[in-house]
Design a protein that fits this description.
This protein is α/β, with parallel strands linked by helices and about 375 residues long. The chain contains 16 helices and 13 strands. A hairpin with a 2-residue loop joins strand 10 and strand 11. The termini are far apart.
Length: about 375
């Protein structure tokens, strides 16, 4: 996995060789010309960076003229970095002799390296990675590289980087029992995934504007939504369908501690005090993240995606009940629940179908995509 370094140097655009050399050392140097642009990025996305590299002299603002570089700005930048929630060890790469030869400068900046010196630059790369490896955030990014790919702009973007890091840190926290705020973090990331799936029309467009869309999204993916039917029954992996459905049951219940709760998750976690339910849910959640990252990455065309589902038409119809070679009761493409229908109906009866759901039985759903939930017997 690459180390992501923020680099402020007004000449960074000219230093393609150094950037290429860094890539070979698994380091991405994200360059900025000035204190203003570099710190704006770091303050906004500090959680995405593993380290900071500065020139000894650079511009205060991108609009400043060449020649106005000053060592004053590295000191101001250092002070602002110290105020960030995440702590960075600062490294300096410079060609300014007054910097790397100055004992006073080295009192403020201990990690100073010389531009143009292969030996010094090799040591810089080694030291940058060593410092990053001491940070818990970097350790987690390297331990769970596939999970963090969900933060790619083609997927959900980086806005939940802090949330995801917090969830991963909780796995090693034995004091966490899985109280409401922990499950809420998982739900927030899943909500963003559902919204992105809707933008790609893997879920219907604007689906997340509907009432009850969070549970509705899980039902849609699981092919249990009463208003939609999958036309490509193999698009979502059945294990992910089932895993996501179970995660949502726990997370939705665990995010609340009042009201009509089916599972009383919060009460269970506070009574049990092991944290095992929460951590098992996190691991299932991580598998879902990895799966949906690849699904979104491979399916970026909304026009193609919307072909994989359709609105479930009203199945109100009247027909003659039949029984196939496997003893399934059916009318056209609608299958009935055997243990109920066999007691009250027989083949040849005239039956009015009042409502259906999508058939989720892997053995019969291709032949009978609809499962009858309500019906009336017409003839005596």
């Amino acid at each position: 996995m690459m180390y992501n370094i923020l680099w402020i140097d007004d000449d960074h655009e000219k230093m393609l060789g150094l950037k290429g050399r860094a890539k070979m050392a698994n380091i991405t140097l994200n360059g900025f010309k000035s204190k203003e642009s570099g710190m704006a990025e770091l303050k906004k996305n500090y959680q995405n960076y593993d380290g900071v590299l500065l020139d000894a002299k650079f511009l205060e603002s991108d609009s400043d003229v060449e020649g106005s570089e000053d060592t004053l700005f590295i000191h101001r930048t250092r002070d602002e970095i110290r105020d960030l929630p995440k702590k960075f060890e600062i490294f300096v790469l410079t060609g300014q002799a007054e910097a790397f030869d100055s004992s006073e400068f080295k009192k403020s900046f201990q990690n100073v390296y010389v531009k143009g010196s292969d030996e010094s630059i090799n040591k810089l790369f080694t030291d940058l990675k060593a410092a990053a490896d001491r940070q818990q955030d970097t350790q987690l990014r390297h331990k769970f590289p596939e999970v963090f790919k969900i933060l790619d702009e083609k997927c959900i973007g980086s806005k939940h980087s802090d949330t995801l890091l917090s969830v991963l840190k909780s796995l090693s926290d034995d004091s966490l029992a899985g109280v409401d705020e922990d499950f809420t973090s998982i739900r927030v990331v899943l909500e963003t995934i559902f919204k992105r799936l809707s933008e790609l029309e893997i879920l219907p467009a604007n689906f997340t504007d509907e009432k009850g869309w969070i549970n509705g999204s899980s039902k849609f993916i699981s092919n249990k939504h009463e208003s939609y039917l999958h036309t490509d029954s193999d698009f979502f992996h059945p294990m992910v369908q089932e895993t996501l459905f179970r995660i949502m049951n726990v997370v939705q219940d665990g995010s609340h501690n009042e009201g009509n709760l089916n599972y009383k998750c919060d009460d269970f976690c506070r009574t049990q005090k092991t944290g095992y339910l929460y951590k098992s849910t996190v691991y299932a959640f991580l598998d879902v993240l990895v799966y949906f990252r690849k699904l979104m990455d491979d399916n970026q065309n909304p026009e193609e995606n919307r072909k994989r589902w359709k609105t479930s038409e009203s199945q109100s119809k009247t027909g003659i009940l039949k029984q196939d070679e496997n003893n399934n009761f059916f009318i056209d493409d609608c299958i009935f629940q055997y243990n109920i229908v066999s007691k009250v109906l027989k083949p040849g009866d005239v039956v009015e179908i009042l409502s259906t759901n999508a058939n989720t039985n892997a053995k019969t759903k291709d032949k009978y995509p609809f499962f009858v939930t309500k019906f009336n017997k017409i003839n005596p």
